[in-house]
Specification:
Layout: H1 21-49, H2 54-76, E1 91-93, H3 98-107, H4 110-129, H5 131-134, H6 140-162, H7 174-193, H8 196-200, H9 202-216, H10 245-274, H11 280-298, E2 305-307, H12 309-318, H13 323-337, H14 340-347, H15 351-373, H16 380-398, H17 410-416, H18 420-434, H19 438-447, H20 449-467, E3 476-477, E4 486-487
Antiparallel strand pairs: 1-2, 3-4
Helix pairs in contact: 1-2, 1-3, 1-13, 2-11, 2-13, 2-14, 4-10, 4-11, 6-15, 6-16, 6-18, 7-9, 7-15, 9-15, 10-11, 10-12, 10-17, 10-18, 16-18
């Protein structure tokens, strides 16, 4: 039995083994750079929505870093071979939940978000256990529609931040827009005109550039950094936890949709890095681990976790699947999470900088949804499913109070009127099940008829040649003497051959 080479430079392309230090450090840092913006930004957005203090925002960023590290380690080293996928992925705080979290936080506050997270984590665990049977309800058409809606619903947040953040003294000012647009320009330039680490870290470098410009324009407030501790452990239950049924239902639906996206990320990882599809056990473990970390995170003031598609992209490009590389990236973020001073500095990033950097991320999310929808062509049925789902999802949330009138219980507006993602997800699932696929099947049959006939002729001719079959000519009607005989090769009355 051959054993994998654990000492050579090829170790990075194997799941087990220890790569050379010269390989390990840059490859691990690469994943940290790709993930760090996605880790801290959701915490900043939700903290601002809930009106948290600077100290509480720092705590949320700190917990986000720690949870991302622990969630990644859980995926790399599964517990009982059931909790965790055992695959090379980075899992951490996700943008996908933000629209619903902001809707819940704006109406009920952070304690309700944390309570809904616990319920959502339980939903994710159940989904993971039953993934083999539930998965058919979420084809790429449904998942793509939801992801597309998530991207659309995040645009107002990005623009609000680019303008300086609602309620800030810099909202709508030329300074805010100048910083935001410069940040965006740096991100776009590095992403499209550079290669290697600068392309990979385009968002991070854009944030640094925007931060420097904002500092010299007097937008950065560093007053809270001095009071932050250098080293501190997160404390359990830093915030209250409340359970509002409507909020739990709303976020639970998003957890299901995100679990489907996790399936896609895990599949992309194994296909791109291992040349195989993930097993049902790996998919189940990955989603169950996601749910467990979401429940744990809620008790420490953290936000929901999910796989990072940007890090999946790195795996598909460089084929590096060694778990030591991903473990190093997790450990770097874990150490950073224990340093509140570092988290406090991150909390001072102006909103205009965050908006300028993340609008490109939100655009990427939207285009990911479109790519999934158009996979295999765009048909009238897909148009109906996507169009109606997005129209109702986005339209309802744009009209405040449209579900809060007489005859509607309060929970209806909370569940369906505050988050476009929830409505779009439910509509996409229902329409995908209800709308028949007969029309599409008939169109496909007609358009490919010539191919089918050609293949049939080839098949029949093959049978004739293989078994030496005699082809009997079709019967004909002889015209001699007004004959009405149906003959094969010879007219029976006149003995005339054809």
């Amino acid at each position: 039995m051959s054993h994998p080479d654990t000492t050579s430079k090829d170790a990075v392309f194997q799941w087990r083994g220890i790569p050379q230090p010269g390989q390990l450090l840059p490859l691990g840092l690469q994943h940290v750079v790709a993930a760090v913006v996605g880790v801290i930004t959701p915490a900043i957005l939700v903290a601002d929505t809930c009106g948290l203090s600077s100290a509480d925002k720092t705590l949320m960023i700190q917990v986000s870093l720690i949870l991302t590290a622990l969630a990644t380690l859980l995926q790399l080293f599964p517990i009982f071979h059931r909790i965790g996928s055992g695959l090379p992925v980075i899992m951490g705080i996700s943008f996908a939940y933000i629209p619903t979290l902001q809707a819940i936080g704006g109406e009920f506050g952070l304690p309700t978000i944390l309570g809904a997270e616990i319920v959502g984590g339980i939903v994710a665990i159940v989904f993971g256990v039953l993934v083999k049977w539930i998965r058919p309800l979420f084809p790429p058409l449904v998942t793509g529609t939801v992801i597309f809606t998530i991207g659309l619903s995040l645009y107002p947040t990005a623009v609000k931040y680019m303008a300086g953040g609602a309620g800030s003294e810099w909202f709508g000012s030329a300074k805010s827009w100048a910083v935001a647009l410069i940040t965006l320009a740096v991100v776009v330039f590095l992403n499209h005109f550079t290669k290697g680490i600068t392309k990979l870290a385009s968002i991070l470098i854009g944030i640094l550039a925007g931060y420097v410009i904002a500092y010299f324009l007097g937008i950065v407030d560093l007053s809270g950094v001095g009071s932050a501790a250098w080293v501190a452990l997160p404390r359990p239950m830093p915030f209250d936890i409340q359970f509002v049924p409507a909020a739990c239902v709303s976020l639970g639906i998003v957890y299901v949709v995100n679990a489907v996206q996790t399936i896609g990320d895990l599949s992309s990882t194994t296909m791109g890095g291992m040349d195989r599809m993930p097993t049902d056990k790996e998919l189940s473990g990955g989603i169950v681990g996601q749910g467990v970390m979401s429940i744990l995170g809620a008790f420490f003031g953290g936000l929901p976790a999910a796989t990072y598609s940007q890090n999946v992209g790195i795996v598909t490009v460089n084929k590096v699947i060694n778990r030591a590389v991903f473990a190093l990236a997790a450990l770097i973020m874990l150490v950073a999470g224990f340093i509140p001073k570092f988290a406090s500095v991150l909390s001072t990033i102006p909103q205009c900088v965050v908006g300028g950097a993340t609008i490109s991320v939100f655009a990427t999310i939207t285009m990911t949804g479109i790519r999934m929808i158009t996979e295999g062509g765009f048909t009238p049925r897909k148009s109906s499913v996507v169009g109606l789902s997005v129209a109702l999802g986005v339209g309802i949330t744009q009209v405040s109070g449209c579900l809060a009138g007489e005859g509607f219980p309060a929970w209806v507006n909370t569940v369906f009127g505050s988050s476009s993602v929830v409505v779009a997800a439910l509509m996409a699932i229902l329409l995908n099940l209800i709308l028949p696929q007969v029309v599409e099947s008939v169109v496909a049959l007609v358009s490919n008829m010539s191919t089918y006939i050609s293949n049939l002729n080839t098949f029949v001719q093959g049978l004739i040649d293989q078994y030496h079959l005699e082809v009997i000519p079709s019967t004909r009607r002889c015209s001699c003497r007004g004959c009405t005989w149906r003959c094969r090769s010879t007219c029976t009355p006149c003995r005339r051959s054809w």
